[in-house]
């Protein structure tokens, strides 16, 4: 039995893709303890593959029940593959969540959805360059509305599920932040694919992390000390340092990956 989870921003097309993948075989309930809808279904023509539609989220912070449900599911239930559905007409904004999903260490496939609209609007996206920006993560272009690219997505997802070795697709923050993250991993004894996720949560002093991963008070204090010193040196709070790091990383590669029509015009008139 394989489990494939769908994660993405609200209105990125998760439910449309879920329906395209599962057809009529669906089960709707609630996630335990919260009134957030849980939808599961069977992949068409693969009755040994379950699809889980996670709630729509913009980040993996602990500030909404949807975010908590999604992160608990990804971290604790270990889906075989996490499909990150991206509204490709809003690529840059959607990639903020992508950076976080990759940091969880879950095996990911990026599904660039709304490609029908992207083409109509004359937006150019280079999926190979996008893949390169995230350590070679598989990228598939789809339209959940027009039902295109779905077979290729399924093929890619099943191939990813079969891969045994773990590959880190997360990007690097500034050297100063990376140094602290590495020390946190050592101090907390974090290992395995989700080590980086926990290190970043400790760095951010995430309000739910103590429940998820209790540490000895002395170690917790030592980590606080490291982060406090960096916050002082950078004159910024830890959460902002991390979110700025993500935005900076995306904005540094996005122009090589995506071109909007007016940008093309500007380029051609300037030379
Ligand atoms: P969710 O909030 O992520 O579950 O997104 P939905 O599946 O409900 O889709 C949000 C809206 O986008 C709906 O109006 C869909 O019909 C539309 N939509 C979803 N996928 C596509 C697509 O590939 N192309 C276009 N043009 N519209 C889409
Ligand atoms: K919706
Ligand atoms: Mg939905």
TrEMBL record:
Query: Which compartments is it annotated to reside in?
Result: Cell membrane
FeoB-type G domain mapped to chain residues: 1-163
Q: Which UniProt keywords apply?
A: Cell membrane, GTP-binding, Ion transport, Iron, Iron transport, Membrane, Nucleotide-binding, Transmembrane, Transmembrane helix, Transport
Tagged with keyword Transmembrane: yes
Its domain of life?
Bacteria
Job description of the protein? Probable transporter of a GTP-driven Fe(2+) uptake system.
**Which family, according to the similarity comment?**
Belongs to the TRAFAC class TrmE-Era-EngA-EngB-Septin-like GTPase superfamily. FeoB GTPase (TC 9.A.8) family.
Q: What is this protein called?
A: Ferrous iron transport protein B
Please indicate which part of the intact protein appears here, giving the first and last residue numbers and the full length: 1 to 271 of 670
């Amino acid at each position: 039995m394989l489990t494939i989870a769908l994660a993405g921003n609200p209105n990125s097309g998760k439910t449309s893709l879920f329906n395209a993948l599962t057809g009529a075989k669906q089960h709707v309930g609630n996630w335990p303890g919260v009134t957030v809808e849980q939808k599961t279904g069977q992949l068409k023509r693969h009755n040994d593959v379950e699809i889980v539609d996670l709630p729509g989220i913009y980040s993996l912070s602990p500030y909404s029940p949807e975010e908590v449900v999604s992160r608990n599911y990804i971290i604790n239930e270990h889906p075989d593959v996490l499909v990150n559905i991206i509204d490709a007409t809003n690529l840059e904004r959607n990639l903020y969540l992508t950076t976080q999903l990759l940091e969880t260490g879950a095996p990911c496939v990026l599904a660039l959805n709304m490609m029908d609209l992207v083409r109509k609007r004359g937006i150019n996206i280079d999926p190979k360059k996008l893949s390169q920006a995230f350590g070679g993560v598989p990228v598939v272009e789809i339209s959940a509305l027009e039902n295109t690219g779905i077979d290729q997505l399924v093929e890619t997802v099943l191939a990813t599920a079969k891969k045994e070795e773990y590959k880190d697709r997360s990007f690097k923050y500034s050297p100063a932040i990376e140094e602290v993250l590495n020390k946190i991993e050592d101090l907390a004894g974090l290992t395995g694919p989700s080590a980086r996720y926990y290190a970043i949560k400790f760095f951010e002093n995430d309000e739910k992390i103590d429940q998820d991963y209790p540490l000895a008070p002395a170690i917790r204090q030592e980590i606080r000390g490291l982060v406090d010193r960096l916050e002082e040196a950078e004159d910024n709070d830890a959460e902002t340092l991390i979110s700025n790091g993500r935005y900076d990383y995306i904005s540094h590669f996005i122009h090589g990956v995506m071109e909007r029509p007016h940008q093309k015009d500007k380029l051609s008139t300037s030379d």
